[in-house]
Amino acid sequence: MRKNNVAIIALALLVPMALPGALSQARAQAEKAAYPAMAAVDAYLVPDQNAEIALARSGAPASISDGAEVMVLGRTGFTTAVKGTNGFLCVVERSWGAMTTDAEFWNPKIRSPICFNPAAARTFAPIFLMKTRLVLAGKSKAEILAATSAALDSKELPPLEPGSMCYMMSKQQYLNDRGMQWHPHLMIFVAGDAAKSWGADGEGSPVIAANDPEERVTIMMVPVWKWSDGTPGPALGY
What we know:
The chain has a domain at 21-184. The protein is 25% helix and 18% strand. The chain has 6 helices and 8 strands, in the order αααββββαααββββ. The protein has helices at 21-34, 49-57, 62-65, 118-123, 125-136, 141-154, and strands at 69-73, 78-82, 89-93, 112-116, 165-168, 185-191, 208-212, 217-223. β1 and β2 (78-82) form a beta hairpin.
């Protein structure tokens, strides 16, 4: 996992604390057994394209998502359904947004609306889009990791641009089986292992860090107080 006490879907979606001892081990084994392989492709698709567009837009406030490009998932990958005007990109991430070691990497229930800012749309979203094409081509986890690592090494996938971030504020999010909605939150993508330099995970710090060595970033998560539709989110505990 990205951090011993952090479980994250995609691009860092939910942060439950690990359970102690045998209970934690039993839970991890049950999760691993639940999704041992990819489900049928249809299980990951949203039949109504307009419904997927609306779900993708719900990742950020309308002042941002109304002008964003929107991509939807098809049988070979994501394609543009709506052209944008502000440089943002909204998609509904699926389970393979997580690291290949995640127990829910193949969970077909996951729907994670996310809106990338222009920097992240150019330099972070391409990793997920590439992983999607590999998944739908029938590649194994090992093949997916090898291909994305090679693409990062060769600069086929671009280096992360400073200022890359995204919004994950959809009340309709299903992040994983453990927490489903969790909190509306922002995520900032920082190259390398950068938790300490951000003061993340400290007592009273609102920043939660998740180091992702597969994508070569640290994801800084900041919970916020309301969903994208303006309604209050769960109480914040910091």
